[in-house]
């Protein structure tokens, strides 16, 4: 089901996303916020560096922010964003439940500290280990590849990989998951192995030769969503201008995913800047 067009869809319910949503609503923009959960901030016991706010847990801070957004009439939805596709003058955002249309998108998903905690990940990232089937699948035409993950995100990435190769093996890293078409290995993963490039994937029970390995763990992070759109990144950080806009017109980013100090005050300010950058962009379109 495709939902009606809005001004801005924000991905992420943390301080950057909710700050942007509140400021956009104050600017009389239609906004929707989507998040799969409350993110890494919710694990913090105490935050005590916010103006006018005494010591507060990360979970409580997020809940208060979401409550404030909802009081302004902002729809906050718990869904998993699977893809963002540009469609002429707007974007189509696909989740595990719906399709949404929006004139602009703000990426405020935070940043996972480790994409996958395996030996060799940093060594072979982009040298046989990849985050984006759309970006890098063509390099493995008719070659044996592995894909790590389980669930709807994995299945989406497999549909992309099938355009290039049918020699696909799924590794769930201990999760209980089966696929109707491709072999599935449920052993715990141990390491990426190779020399200049990846050559093998090691599990707790065996070592498997592959030309490439694709990650589709849990859900797409800001980096994966950005790569598919062609957003420019530097050292896993999304590049933005002074208005928090990326190189793709209409795509903005704020918070931890753009790098810098990973602090709540900085994320709040990023959200404020993004809201005004988005509003200026929309005003330019409306002239």
Describe this structure in words.
- By secondary structure, this protein is an alpha/beta fold.
- It folds into two domains: 177 residues, FAD/NAD(P)-binding domain; 96 residues, FAD/NAD(P)-binding domain.
- The chain contains seven helices and 17 strands.
- The strands form four sheets. Strands 1, 2, 3, 4, 5, 6 and 17 form a seven-stranded mixed sheet that branches. The protein has a five-stranded parallel sheet with strand order 7-14-8-9-10, covered by helices on one side.
- Helix 1 runs parallel beside helix 2.
- The longest helix is centred in the C-terminal third of the chain and has 23 residues.
- It starts with a strand and ends with a helix.
* CATH homologous superfamily descriptor of the largest domain: FAD/NAD(P)-binding domain
CATH class of the largest domain: Alpha Beta
Task: Enumerate how many helices there are, as a single number.
Answer: 7
Using only CA atoms, what is the Rg? Answer: 20 Å
> Quick one: how many beta strands?
17
CATH architecture of the largest domain: 3-Layer(bba) Sandwich
| First-to-last CA distance | 31 Å
Query: Can you give the helix content as a percent range?
Result: 25-40%
Number of domains: 2
Series of H and E elements: EHEHEEEEHEHEHEEEEEEHEEEH
CATH topology of the largest domain: FAD/NAD(P)-binding domain
Determine the mean pLDDT: 91
Structural class: alpha/beta
Beta-strand share of residues: 25-35%
User: What profile does the largest beta sheet have?
Assistant: 7 strands, mixed
| Low-confidence runs of at least 5 consecutive residues | none
Write down the overall geometry: globular
């Amino acid at each position: 089901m495709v939902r009606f067009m809005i001004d801005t869809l924000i991905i992420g319910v943390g301080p950057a996303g909710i700050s942007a949503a509140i400021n956009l609503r104050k600017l009389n923009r239609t906004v929707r916020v989507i998040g799969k959960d409350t993110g890494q901030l919710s694990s913090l016991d105490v935050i005590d560096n916010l103006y006018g706010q005494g010591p507060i847990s990360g979970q409580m801070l997020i809940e208060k922010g979401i409550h404030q957004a909802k009081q302004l009439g902002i729809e906050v939805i718990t869904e998993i964003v699977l893809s963002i596709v540009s469609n002429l003058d707007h974007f189509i955002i696909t989740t595990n439940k719906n399709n949404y249309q929006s004139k602009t998108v703000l990426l405020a998903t935070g940043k996972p500290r480790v994409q996958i905690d395996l030996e060799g990940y940093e060594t072979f990232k982009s040298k046989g280990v990849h985050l984006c089937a759309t970006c890098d699948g063509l390099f493995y035409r008719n070659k044996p590849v592995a894909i790590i993950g389980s669930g709807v995100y994995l299945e989406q990435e497999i549909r992309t990989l099938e355009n290039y190769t049918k020699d696909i093996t799924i590794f769930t890293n201990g999760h209980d998951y089966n696929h109707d078409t491709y072999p599935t290995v449920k052993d715990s993963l141990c390491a990426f192995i190779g020399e200049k490039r990846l050559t093998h994937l090691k599990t707790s029970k065996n070592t498997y030769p592959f030309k490439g390995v694709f990650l589709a763990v849990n859900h797409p992070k800001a980096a994966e969503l950005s790569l598919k759109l062609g957003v420019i990144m530097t050292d896993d950080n999304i590049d933005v201008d002074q208005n928090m806009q990326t190189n793709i017109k209409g795509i903005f980013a704020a918070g931890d995913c753009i790098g810098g100090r990973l602090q709540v005050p900085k994320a709040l300010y990023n959200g404020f800047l993004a809201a005004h950058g988005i509003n200026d962009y929309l005003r330019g379109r409306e002239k």
